[in-house]
Amino acid sequence: MIVWLRIVLAAAVILAVSIVLIPLQLLALRFDWRLRRRLPRLWHRIICYCLGIRVRVTGRLEDRRPLMLCSNHSSWMDIMVMSAVADVAFIAKIEVADWPIFGMLAKLQKSVFVVREERRKTGHQANEIAGRMADGEIIVLFPEGTTSDGNRLLEVKSSLFGAAAMAVPASPTGTVVVQPVAIAYTRVHGIPMGRYHRPLAAWPGDIELLPHLIDIVRCGALDAEVSFGEAVEYRADTNRKEVSATIASRIRNLLNSRLRGREIS
């Protein structure tokens, strides 16, 4: 009974906040106000609180711009957690635009939808990413290209770092800063999850959203740790595969450190 009361209360608060903030965000998008970058952070912080997701940050977000964050990806919650930490926008595959709920939220946050299979659209997408990064926006990339079970980093696709390369010419300094980030779900009610229970937070894509969302609310207290690592400078002469390997190694070390509760060199 208490669990269902919590679910109803969370739903009511989320609905009320959305009714207030979504129209304001639509106006900010319509007139391209700077406010459109800040409102999603407020909304996601409230949503994380309602869902019982407690976010802890280690390391520091880079001050330099243009900035691209590269993170591991295990759940739909990654979007909320990252958005609660910083004013960010995401690079997402075009299919996300048609997803229920997530598609709408992605559009409200002005995500960049990419069509990887159609080269003729690559130039327009690259120009949009480059222009927005040059304007100071922080863009988030999930270089695995899919979600994992939360216990490991999947293979990082070096081709996805082309977005950073394409943004270099638009950078005033001729450099794009690429910073690794690890998102780890570590505890439920303060108790360490361990490998067996960590998939509770993961959403690999073959699980229906509503039951998974209800399970998260039932938990009532889920700890998410966001770790910012040492950044890499991407220039015109930078080798994309080398950057990809370096970023992957740093994300993996950050993730393993958080999951094991100790630093890994």
UniProtKB/TrEMBL annotation:
Its main location: membrane. The keyword Transferase applies. InterPro entries: Plipid/glycerol_acylTrfase. It is found in: Membrane. It comes from the Bacteria. GO terms for molecular function: acyltransferase activity. The chain crosses the membrane at residues 6-29. Residues 67-186 form the Phospholipid/glycerol acyltransferase domain. Keywords: Acyltransferase, Lipid metabolism, Membrane, Transferase, Transmembrane, Transmembrane helix. One of its GO terms (biological process) is lipid metabolic process. Pfam families: Acyltransferase. The keyword Acyltransferase applies. CDD domains: LPLAT_AGPAT-like (cd07989). One of its GO terms (cellular component) is membrane. PANTHER family: LYSOPHOSPHATIDYLCHOLINE ACYLTRANSFERASE, PHOSPHOLIPID ACYLTRANSFERASE. This is 1-acyl-sn-glycerol-3-phosphate acyltransferase. It comes from Rhizobium phaseoli. The lineage of its organism: Bacteria, Pseudomonadati, Pseudomonadota, Alphaproteobacteria, Hyphomicrobiales.
